[in-house]
């Protein structure tokens, strides 16, 4: 390092040897370099010391600085100053720079034009050489700033940084003087500093070390290279945050300068990689570095608050990211379709072999919903990290509607073929349908609105189809008892109990679905039995007098209560079905026309799907009502329906009478 000072001041060296031999001997006795070559270096440094620290140098001369204060602190007397060579040996670059600036002031502060005195030219040349040597040493120190561990490295770096600041201050001073500065001014050491760090970053990113233990089996060359660069960047930025930052004044924001340099360099390297066609695995890996790993590195606690992460932006521009994202998302869509279809095909194969679904707590269960839900959840969640955008990740689920349709087709085949294992499979499907619905409703952020809506419609069709398939045999068994409803025998004999017994026996065969699905299935049966009851009643025997109407009222009430208690015991709690029968019974009992109108208005308000045709059929059972009276009551229903429609519908009215077919 010191040998570079050899060319400086050849004439001054001779002058020092002739006029300062005692002083030179004293300096030589304090050095550690004893061989012949080092002796030449020592003589050179001796001349530098006599040149830069000669007693004739003024400490502060306002006239010599054009009225401006000197750029640095007051120089100490020569006998208290460190010798120039000692400042370099000890890497006190700031002190060395102050000596050179002091000599610059002596040479140029006393004259109006730097080139005027030709006698100074030799000294000017020698000073320029020394400045180049110091700059070279400062740059060497900067290039070592990211290498951890060397004793005194932080102090040397801090001194180098101060030397740069001194030179910047001297540049500004000369700019204020309004006259031509020395040839090296402005020296722009700050620009040199910044460009040196940028080159340092580029060199380190071009040749990142990769420990053998860091290379994972199966990694491609792209992944190994990106990992190595990422590891180098992380380690260096941590070094900057923990060590280098303390060597700079806060206003320099050195952490962000390094972060920008690494961001720019890393981005340039990734652009070159992205320009070539990447395999799916490398494409995914590159996107994860851009959107997941890289932000995590910058969010480490040691770097939080010292780097403006938001200002850095993304590692790759949108025009390069979009093709990579499209490649990744299209691949994930294909995987969802493939794996989702495979899950359904596995279930179908088991059914074709006659295998029943497994049981848990006595209920049939299928893995179809669980497996597909896990697949979707994992794919969209990971895709959000890979592409860094939830809306983009949602596009993967565009294929879900197709998967739901395949599931629906599978269930339709199960129902159509009606094998021995079909009913257990359909009961298991009810659980799958419920799980899918819950997933779509609670995890809406994973889907686009259109996908969620379409899938829910498919699932609703599947549920209704499954319930109809399971309940159809029940109604076939109960059909003989349905025929007796509304007849004179039903009114005069206790025939309804036989229907209750039949229902209770058939309910045993409906078990096997998970709890909530079984309860919903019972509610569906309760509603369908009630619908059939009302349908049979409306076309039943005429009630000719008040006594028969009162008896019919009591019978309907009793039947409603018995039916409710039976289904309540089995798990259904649909009390609203009992209320419908109770209100119909009241219409049969009442004789006063205004009272009938009030009851009909209440029934119509609760069930807007009650039609005039159905109400007319009910009123015709009361043969003592005239046609005009029936018209009057029917008009009340029309008014009630209009009021309900004008109010926008009070609450979610349950459909019931729309299922009651009347000829």
Automatic annotation (TrEMBL):
It comes from Gasterosteus aculeatus aculeatus. Belongs to the SEC6 family. Gene3D superfamilies: Exocyst complex component Sec6, C-terminal domain. GO terms for molecular function: SNARE binding. Residues 59-81 are annotated as: Disordered. This is Tumor necrosis factor, alpha-induced protein 2b. PANTHER family: EXOCYST COMPLEX COMPONENT SEC6-RELATED, TUMOR NECROSIS FACTOR ALPHA-INDUCED PROTEIN 2. One of its GO terms (biological process) is exocyst localization.
